[in-house]
Specification:
5 strands, alpha+beta, 3-stranded mixed β-sheet, single chain, CBS-domain, 6 helices, about 35% helix, two-stranded antiparallel ribbon
């Protein structure tokens, strides 16, 4: 049953990352090139938190207010700190966390590194019918 599966079994590996000092225009180029809807924003040091930049952030925080994507830095519009899940967390708890926090994707953090991303699409596709 899918609810007994763990985050590490469904996550997408090969997380695409960007530096917070990059421009939103650079982030959009990378998202298009990598064919992803979000990027994890790398932490500046071990004591810093990771961030997340999504297409929704770009549309709502740059395009809608009419800002220049070449003049806005990723760190200005990213979501931070990230809500993460551990690799061994059962999918039903991941789904509950995502629902209650209103997020669509959660990086999978092993205590040292982000090793994948679990999205609501990954969970949806795991439903056995």
């Amino acid at each position: 049953m899918p609810r007994l599966k763990k985050a590490s079994e469904l996550m997408t590996k090969g997380v695409k990352m960007i530096d917070g000092s990059a421009t939103v225009a650079e982030a959009v180029k990378k998202m298009r090139k990598e064919k992803v809807s979000s990027l994890v924003v790398d932490h500046r040091n071990q004591n810093d938190a990771y961030g997340m930049l999504t297409r929704k952030d770009v549309v709502n925080k740059v395009v809608d207010p009419g800002k220049d994507p070449n003049a806005v830095k990723v760190f200005e519009i990213m979501n931070k700190p990230l809500i993460t899940v551990s690799p061994g967390l059962q999918i039903k708890y991941c789904a509950r966390l995502m629902h209650h926090t209103g997020i669509r994707r959660a990086p999978v953090f092993d205590g040292t590194n982000i090793i994948g991303i679990l999205s609501n699409t990954d969970i949806f596709n795991a439903i056995e019918v």
